[in-house]
Each structure stands twice: as structure tokens, then as C-alpha cells.
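Progress note, sequence design subtask.
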């Protein structure tokens, strides 16, 4: 048996499906007429982004039907002749939103970089945080060459290997960039991926980890509103990854303006519809040095 991977619907496609199929079907099943209810586009958009991020539309259908049943009840009770559902009234019909804002940091700080991940619910932002557990400035001569790294955040085997590779790449890159800066060689590091209860795996955070380590070592934050994805090789080559469509959608949903993707994923990005890619500044990297120039420009 051959398995065929099919990408999920994007928000615009879900909106069209809801308007053309789900809402008319729900009106028919509840006995409502078009003139008795009005669902604003803004409320549908909020419903899709904050309640129904899964790949398909089954959950969206359940939420639409739930809203229409409550509207029908209001009309039967004589509470209203017409119900208008706006985004600020969604809570009354479907409760609290399941998904809230994904951004942990509004402004970049040294040692923290925003990556992109693929999950069962589609794309998502994934932060890489780094901090010194032993500050290089406090290390004496007898402590030299004891630098190491601690990994936390329920990382799978592949992601742990990717982090160790990124650590080596970052050390090498820093020694070439600034030979006097030996912080990654002597300092003890802690690397954490937030949402510790969620298992994480895969190699696609390699470039993000290298950038976080260099940002910490240089004590310089990266450019604002930048997110990246890409596997890193031991020699600094940026390798292709999967889920480009879902990751791009996640970045745009969170108002990320600059994306860095592997050069070999250019063809995948070029296949995306224009309404997904509009407004995004996209860079394609072959080696890590290409990423460094973008994220630390003018710094």
C-alpha cells in the first residue's frame, strides 16, 4: 500500500468551504433562513485561526453547527428576530478559544531565536532559548576547555543530534568570526525548547539552534520578525526540510515578515499560492554564512 501525503487546507480555503458548503448545510439542518442570521467574515476568520487549526474541516463543521443550533434556540425562544455573529460574540456561541498567541517574545533578545515547526495541527512557531549556566567571564585558567551543553524540552534523538551538530558548527563559526571570543569553547550552556510537555523531534531546527548560540555568544539579538527552518550539516551546509507550506502559513499567521529557508526548498516555496506568500520577505540559504548575514545585518 502506498501512502500519499496531502497538505491541509489553508485559512482562505477553509473560509471558502465554510461559506459555500458548511454554513448552507448547517442552515438546512437547523431550519434557519439566510435572513435570520449573519456571520461576519471576521468572526469566521477568528473561528478558523483560534478554534479550528487542524488540517481538515471536520472540527470547523462542528463549530459552525454548534453556532447555528444556538442561534436557532434564540429564535425559537423569541429572544431575537435576527442574530449577527461578530468575532467579539464568538465566546457566547463556542466558548473560549483553543489557540492563543504563539509569540513568547515581541522583541528579540540575545540567545533566543524563532524557528518554525510542523505539527499534526499544521505549522507552528518554535522558539529556541539559550542561556549560560556558567558565565565564560567568570571562568579561570584551570577551568578552560570545559564548555558543554545541556538540552531540555522533551527533545527526541534526532533533534538532540541536530543540536549537538549545531553546537559544533556554532563553535567553529565563532572561532573564525572572532578568534578572541572563546565563550562557546569555555562556557557551559543550557538550550531549552519551550512547551516542555510536548515531544519534539526532527533535524529542521539546526539553523535556528546555531543562530541562538551565536546570538548568546556575541550578546547580540537577531533582527526582529525573522523566523527560520533548515537542517544544518557539520560543515555548515543548509539542508532541505519538509512542511514548507504549513511553516509559511504559521509564520504569516503570527505576522512574521522575514523567512529564511533552505535553498533546496525554493521549488517548494515557489509552488505556494500567491495569497500565502504575499507580504513576506523570503531568503534562501545554501550555507550558514548566508543566514548570519541576514539575521545580524548592521550589528
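Output:
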Amino acid at each position: 500500500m502506498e501512502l500519499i501525503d496531502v497538505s491541509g487546507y489553508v485559512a482562505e480555503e477553509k473560509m471558502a468551504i465554510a461559506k459555500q458548503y458548511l454554513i448552507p448545510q448547517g442552515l438546512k439542518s437547523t431550519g434557519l433562513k439566510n435572513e435570520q442570521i449573519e456571520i461576519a467574515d471576521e468572526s469566521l476568520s477568528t473561528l478558523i485561526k483560534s478554534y479550528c487549526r487542524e488540517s481538515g474541516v471536520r472540527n470547523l463543521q462542528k463549530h459552525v453547527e454548534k453556532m447555528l443550533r444556538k442561534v436557532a434556540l434564540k429564535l425559537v425562544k423569541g429572544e431575537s428576530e435576527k442574530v449577527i455573529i461578530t468575532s467579539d460574540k464568538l465566546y457566547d456561541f463556542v466558548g473560549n478559544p483553543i489557540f492563543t498567541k504563539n509569540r513568547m517574545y515581541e522583541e528579540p533578545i540575545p540567545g533566543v531565536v524563532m524557528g518554525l515547526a510542523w505539527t499534526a495541527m499544521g505549522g507552528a512557531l518554535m522558539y529556541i532559548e539559550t542561556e549560560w549556566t556558567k558565565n565564560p567571564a567568570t571562568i579561570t585558567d584551570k577551568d578552560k576547555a570545559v564548555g558543554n551543553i545541556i538540552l531540555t524540552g522533551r527533545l527526541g534523538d534526532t533533534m538532540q543530534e541536530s543540536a549537538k551538530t549545531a553546537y559544533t558548527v556554532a563553535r567553529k563559526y565563532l572561532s573564525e568570526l572572532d578568534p578572541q571570543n572563546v565563550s562557546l569553547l569555555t562556557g557551559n550552556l543550557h538550550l531549552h525548547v519551550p512547551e516542555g510537555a510536548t515531544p519534539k523531534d526532527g533535524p529542521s531546527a539546526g539553523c535556528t539552534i546555531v543562530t541562538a548560540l551565536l546570538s548568546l555568544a556575541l550578546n547580540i539579538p537577531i533582527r526582529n520578525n525573522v523566523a527560520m527552518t533548515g537542517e544544518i550539516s557539520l560543515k555548515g551546509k543548509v539542508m532541505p526540510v519538509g512542511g514548507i507550506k504549513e511553516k509559511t502559513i504559521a509564520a504569516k499567521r503570527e505576522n512574521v515578515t522575514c523567512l529564511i529557508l533552505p535553498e533546496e526548498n525554493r521549488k517548494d516555496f515557489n509552488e505556494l499560492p500567491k495569497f500565502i506568500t504575499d507580504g513576506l520577505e523570503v531568503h534562501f540559504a545554501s550555507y550558514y554564512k548566508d543566514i548570519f548575514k541576514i539575521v545580524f545585518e548592521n550589528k
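The chain has two domains: 11-94, 112-295. Work on this subtask will continue into the next period as scheduled.
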